[in-house]
Specification:
The complex is a heterodimer of chains A (327) and B (126). Chain A is an alpha+beta fold and 327 residues long. In chain A, 54% of the residues lie in helices and 7% in strands. A five-stranded antiparallel sheet of chain A has the order 4-3-2-1-5. Chain A is elongated and about 95 Å long. Chain A starts with 26 loop residues before the first helix and ends with a helix. By secondary structure, chain B is mainly alpha-helical. Chain B has two domains: 1-83; 84-126. Chain B has a two-stranded antiparallel ribbon. In chain B, strand 3 (51-52) and strand 4 form a beta hairpin. The longest helix of chain B has 35 residues, at 85-119. The model of chain B has no long low-confidence stretch (mean pLDDT 88). Classes of the chains: A alpha+beta (327), B mainly alpha (126). At the A-B interface, helix 1, helix 3 and helix 9 of A face helix 1, helix 2 and helix 3 of B.
Chain lengths: 327, 126
């Protein structure tokens, strides 16, 4: 004789009564969606913080078109946005091969899933490689600039308003100052690479080149940087210039506000890290496909889950592209 | 769920014969949108420099086109179109609500600090 009392909840067979999938999605897929929501919030935190800093320095912010003008193998040409557009296209393309892999998975077509997963991984690698190149170019810099006491950046232009690099009008003389290393001078104290030129040499170069003018970070009403007169250029450089900045790091950069480089490194870096981990996960799934794990399981849902993550990485890039490079 | 796909985009204006065909169709659409963005970004037409609700018309276009792209990536590549309404709303509305809230607060605050800098007595130009 049974002593247990069976209580009926009256929800048997109802949508949320248990024992079925009310959202018609498996646990894994649903959790991937919820992970994506939380990850989207992290990224929007970064992008909103970028918007905050940009609104704070709205009249001094660098113009992205002038910063990202380089394309590999095409030296010295000003091609704003072309390379970033190429990167965007690569990522959308790899998203397409991914969704084709998911589709082939629905038809249990192992050969096609293998091919499309492989193409997705290649696309991801091209993207990460492009981003590494973009970082290297950004860090190395191009024109060089002088930083002032107030942390502003003074850049140099010719009479037509075209940028002039420091190497084109400044001559480096023999420097007495050498880079401080851990092994000499003050022990265990080192410093970064010294700039090629000193401020005195830049002043000398500016004095001897009549056609070079100083451009400040202040944007005029047309959204262009303000170019100073010849007399004002010399005055500004002599009274406020503290040191030469070449390229970019986390505390100063030749493009303008230090925050610009900080956000560039953090946002594209965080996104690049996502692409990198996406490629690793894709490779794992790729080997599982090749080994026939999902063939035996009669379900390619793992490809679908990793596909969701991969599309999300593409989705984030669409926003980074707009808010970092376009707007 | 897995094998049924809704094959209509643009509210039924375009209907594809198979899922594969729809994927390529969406790719073409996304590529066109990106190309338009890049061309506008390079040439920056003078007429789009006019301000509209505190922002350049061009920037409004960029943001709207981005949201259009995001919609098609989520709906067709991530198959949100085929999910049930409850899942779709859980994911989409939660994110949209929180992001709008965050963006509003931070941009508002950033604009305020800019006002303090530019109309106050803080000298930045040195």
């Amino acid at each position: 004789m049974s002593t247990t009392t069976v209580v009926s909840t009256g929800t048997e067979g109802k949508t949320w009564g248990g024992g079925n999938e009310p959202l018609h999605a498996s646990y894994g897929k649903m959790m991937m969606w919820f992970f994506i929501v939380s990850d989207a919030l992290t990224f929007s935190g970064f992008l909103a913080a970028y918007g905050f800093s940009r609104f704070k320095f709205i009249d001094y912010w660098p113009i992205a078109d002038e910063v990202f003008t380089h394309v590999p193998f095409l030296h010295g040409q000003e091609l704003p946005m072309i390379y970033v557009a190429f990167m965007t296209f690569i990522l959308i393309m790899s998203s397409v091969t991914m969704v084709l892999a998911v589709d082939a998975g629905h038809h249990l077509n192992k050969a096609k899933v293998t091919l499309y997963m492989f193409l997705t991984i290649i696309g991801g690698l091209i993207f990460v490689g492009s981003q590494a190149w973009e970082w290297a170019t950004f860090i190395k810099g191009d024109y060089g600039a002088v930083q002032t006491k107030g942390g502003n950046i003074l850049q140099f232009v010719d009479a037509e308003g075209h940028r002039v690099a420091l190497r084109d009008f400044v001559v480096a003389e023999g420097h007495e100052r050498v880079q401080q290393e851990r092994k000499n001078g003050l022990w265990f104290v080192s410093e970064g690479t010294l700039p090629t030129y000193t401020v005195e040499e830049v002043i000398h170069g500016l004095e001897t080149h009549d056609n070079v003018l100083v451009r400040t970070q202040l944007l005029d009403e047309n959204g262009q940087k303000t170019v100073l007169s010849r007399a004002e250029s010399l005055n500004q450089l002599k009274s406020y210039g503290t040191h030469v900045v070449e390229g970019a790091n986390l505390h100063e950069n030749e493009y303008g506000s230090p925050l610009f480089a900080d956000f560039f490194f953090f946002i594209t870096g965080f996104h690049g890290f996502h692409v990198f981990s996406g490629v690793i996960i894709n490779i794992i799934i790729f080997f599982n496909v090749v080994l026939g794990t999902y063939e035996r399981r009669k379900s390619y849902e793992m490809v679908e889950k990793v596909g969701l993550y991969w599309h999300f990485v593409d989705l984030v890039w669409v926003f980074v592209f707009t808010f970092f490079y376009l707007v | 769920m897995a094998h049924e796909h809704k094959l209509e985009i643009f509210r039924g204006l375009v209907k594809f014969k198979s899922n594969t065909q729809k994927i390529w169709g969406v790719l073409i659409f996304l590529s066109i949108v990106t190309a338009v963005e890049v061309v506008l970004g390079i040439y920056k037409p003078e007429m789009l420099m006019a301000k509209f609700i505190g922002m350049k018309l061009l920037n409004w276009i960029f943001i709207i086109l981005t949201l259009v792209k995001a919609y098609y990536i989520t709906w067709d590549f991530m198959h949100m179109r085929d999910e049930v309404k409850a899942l779709r709303r859980m994911v989409v509305w939660t994110a949209i609500f929180l992001i709008l809230y965050l963006v509003f607060i931070l941009l508002q605050e950033g604009g305020y600090i800019e006002g303090v800098y530019s109309s106050g007595f803080i000298r930045k130009d040195f």
